[in-house]
Write a structure and sequence with these properties.
With 178 residues, this protein is an alpha+beta fold. It has one domain: Orthogonal Bundle (Jann2411-like fold), CATH 1.10.3300. 46% of the residues lie in helices and 12% in strands. Helix 3 runs antiparallel to helix 4 and helix 4 crosses helix 5. The structure holds zinc ion (ZN).
Length: 178
Amino acid sequence: MDLLWTSFLNSEWHDWRGGGHTEDRLETPGWVERFLAHWGLPCPAGPADLGALKELRSLLRGMAVALAAGGTPASDQLAALNAVMAAGPVIRQIGAEHQLTLRPAGATWAHIEAEIAASLAQTLAEGEGARVRICENPDCLWVFYDDTRNRTKRFCEDKTCGNLIKVRRFRARQKRGS
Ligand SMILES: [Zn+2]
């Protein structure tokens, strides 16, 4: 399952079939616009600050690595996350169904970054950091949120990475056996 922040993190794409091919989708024309539309976020006027987006991505990756290893983010990582959220303030609103919502107070890239940071903060606040996984296919490294009941999902997709690794292990065993 993808969350706003894991989806953003996976803009750093690795070819799961191997070969070491990677793509930085933040630099792919149209990717950011499609990403924002998919998550219902407005596309700010003006060009994105790619440097700031990549900095945020590497912060999130560091936190994901810590969580996937069963640890917790360091205090300086939390401070950095707080700084990103502080730069994109929100407005509290009550809806017609009496639901309380937080809406970005503006439509700048700082607000987009704050929304992405808040998505990870929410995962932590819900006590679900232990569900963060990095696909066990070493060529893939897709970051995902394990929403299965028994929390045993090891691959981003069983049909792709799961099968690939299973076949690889089977062949390795056959080789040793012959
Ligand atoms: Zn994978």
